[in-house]
Amino acid sequence: MRIIKEHKNSAEEIASILHKGGLAIFLSAVCYNAGVDATNPKAVKKLIKYKNRPFGKPFSIGTTDLVMAKKYAEMNDTAINLYKSLYPGPVTLVCKGKHKVAPGIESELGTLGLLVTNHKLTMDIIRKLGKPVTTSSANSSYQPRPFSLESLFENLSKKQLANIDLVVDSGEVPWKEASTVIDTTLDDPAILRQGQIKLKDKNEILSRSEEATQNLGKELLQKYEEYLGKRPIIFALEGEMGAGKTQFTKGVGKALGIKEEIISPTFSLVLEYPHLTHFDTWRFQDSSELEALGLIKMLEDKNMIISIEWAERVADIIKKHRDQAVVIWIKIQYGKRENERLISWGNL
Fold first, then answer.
1. Which helix (H) or strand (E) holds 279?
2. What is the pTM of this model?
3. Closest by alpha carbon to 122, among 79, 171, 61, 80?
């Protein structure tokens, strides 16, 4: 692994590494990015190994413009209009792929994510390479997005570091929201991840898998983790049986690095993990049981994260203690299709 400071010819040097099938770390519009030639199968396998990412979980790609994007994806009128209106992003449009990228880039359903951006270094790299480049953040799966190389390296193993060929150091950058992800393959565009660009007044996404629901748990923890050490965080989860409340909590646990399997505490009422307490209030006879199970003591730990399923049943107790914690209300509703969940959130 070679580390260099960003300079005027950085794009050319990065493109040369990618042309040879290498993996480069460089600053994108949001954070540090792990880039490879998206059409090179060996390079993509290297990226999957580096990210500790299961095969089948897709990557987005960056293209120079709409003309290049159309070479790799079937873009309907919705996608084209969103591309033009939201340029320069950051937004990722999910379209039907044309299967011209390496295996592992498109999803198992054959969809492809197109990052809409005009970030100079990223665009210069793609132009010099002449091919799309992966636009995955450089962090390992379920680790925080890196806004400095120091924060990146502290979460990587030696095996992961061995997969990196070049690192371009552009210094530390301020925290930013990730790109907004919009699925354009259906009749109505659906927000799969709410990022910097908001198409609605409220925070809302459409989850189409348990993994996507877990990813939201991870992302919301990372969004609010700046409060840890100052105040505990409560995720107040509302939703019908089987909607995905426990899946959300699993994502929070993965972001915390909890190795133990997180299960629903329906029968035990409460389960405790390192820095995470998980309540299920479905069988509560009275909302005061939440305090009887130790909530008040838990709130004294300013690094504690508390996930409460069926939070609407104990809303009075949560509101009673809201000045002691950051409270994020999560509502999970069934979507139009069997695997869809509409998830919205807001904090008090």
1. strand 276-280
2. 0.77
3. 61
**Tokens 């953040």, residue?**
137
CA 108, distance to chain mean position in Å, is 18
Cβ proximity of 179 and 25 under 8 Å: no
Q: How far is 51 from 19, CA to CA, in rounded Å?
A: 20
| Residue ranges for the chain with pLDDT beneath 50 | none
Eight-class DSSP state of 64 = S
CB 84 within 8 A of CB 67: no
Token look-up 């770390």 returns 25
The burial class, CB within 10 Å (0-12 / 13-18 / 19+), for 315 is middle
With residues binned 3-state (H G I as helix, E B as strand, rest as coil), the percentages for the chain, rounded to 5, are: 30, 25, 45
CA distances (Å), origin 25, targets 31, 118, 128, 130, 237: 10, 18, 16, 18, 37
Rounded-to-integer distance, Cα 306 and Cα 235, Å:
6
pLDDT for res 199: 66
Residue 317 burial (10 A CB sphere; 0-12, 13-18, 19+): buried
Could you give the CA distance from residue 184 to residue 94 in angstroms, rounded to a whole number? 6
163-188 tens-digit pLDDT: 999 999 999 999 888 899 999 997 67
- Give Cβ neighbours of residue 211 (< 8 Å, ≥ 6 apart): 57
Using the structure block, give the residue that is written with the tokens 């799969």: 192
Q: How far is it, in rounded angstroms, from Cα 99 to Cα 84? A: 23
Quote the pLDDT of residue 109. 84
**Which CATH number applies to 2-169: 3.40.50.410, 3.10.20.310, 3.90.870.10, 3.40.50.720?**
3.90.870.10
pLDDT, residue 201, reads 64
Give, in words, the CATH class of 204-347: alpha beta
Q: Cis omega before residue 90 (within 30°)? A: yes
Domain definitions of the chain by residue range: 2-169, 204-347
Residue with tokens 């130790």: 294
Partners of 307 in the β-ladder:
235, 278
Q: Supply the pLDDT for residue 348.
A: 59
DSSP single-letter state for residue 37: B
